[in-house]
Amino acid sequence: MVKVLVTGASGFIGNQVVNNLLSQKHQVIATSRDENKVRLKTWYNKVKYIPFDISNFDSNLNLYEYFNRPDVLIHLAWDGLPNFLDIVHIEKNLFTHYQFLKNYIQNGGKHITAIGTCLEYGKNEGCLSEDKVPEPDCAYAIAKDSLRRFIEELQKNQFFVFHWIRLFYMYGEGQYSKAILSQLETAVQKGDSVFNMSGGEQLRDYLSIEKVAQNIVAIALQKKIVGIINCSSGQPISVRRLVEDYISKNNYSIKLNFGFYPYPNYEPLAFWGNNQKLNNIINE
Q: Which domain covers residue 25, as residue numbers?
């Protein structure tokens, strides 16, 4: 049994990560800002919950001791999403999360898994491997890539295991309302006859949230493969195909209005993740 601290435990990813850890009989310490939200989770009485606001904490606090000396930290917390362009990611989130992780590490934390983003690859297209030089092109990606670099600097003077997981695209229950499948489901439930979307020709890399959580836990609980690791399927699918498959699976009759929205200017048209590292971990 491993004692695992999960930050952002009440979120879309955190909820599933906690469930996965509990299914493997690990001891979970869960933290987030709002305990009232967490009380609604099915796992609330199965974990040790410690409320904590990363955006505002006493720097003199020993976080490793405060969270009962976990064996592993899975750091999922992050404010300001899904607005990837908001400068708050650079001006505030980057530094508060760096101070949080630095405090935790310098007080004894030796096994860290933190979450990055495929947007760190910038406008690069095609199959993207972890050794690709990052070229972040939006505030969120710049902040995440910078945080990774900051933590790597700490490794030069102090030993700790460090995984940086670059997430690609996800779908599933609890996803934020602006995600395309969430918007589609809302349109269907409202009785809309037409769903407006982009041209849908973007090639993306999607995984279910349950699979993402499974991958995060598998990565976090091993020490053999460290550093940057893509959490991806390795199989690109067009956004149009994703939406059409969802409609077909659920027997919906809503029509699609392609080309209504422009493509996001911070993403390339076609990219997906090389998942060789991930497969090596899973198949170990």
A: 3-170+206-234+273-282
Q: What is the DSSP letter of 50?
A: -
Whole-angstrom CA distances from 240 to 192, 199, 200 are 18, 7, 4
CB of 219 within 8 A of CB of 280?
A: no
pLDDT digits (tens, 9 = 90+) for 154-189: 999 999 999 999 999 999 988 888 899 999 999 999
Whether 115 is covered by a domain: the verdict is yes
Q: Are strands 203-204 and 237-238 parallel, antiparallel or unpaired?
A: antiparallel
Q: How far apart are the first and last CA of the chain?
A: 19
Judge whether 63 lies within some domain.
yes
Number of neighbours of residue 92 by Cβ within 10 angstroms: 15
CATH number, position 277: 3.40.50.720
pLDDT in tens, 246-275: 999 999 999 999 999 999 888 899 999 999
Residue 146 included in any domain: yes
Residue 13 domain flag = yes
Which tokens is 186 given?
Answer: 């809302």
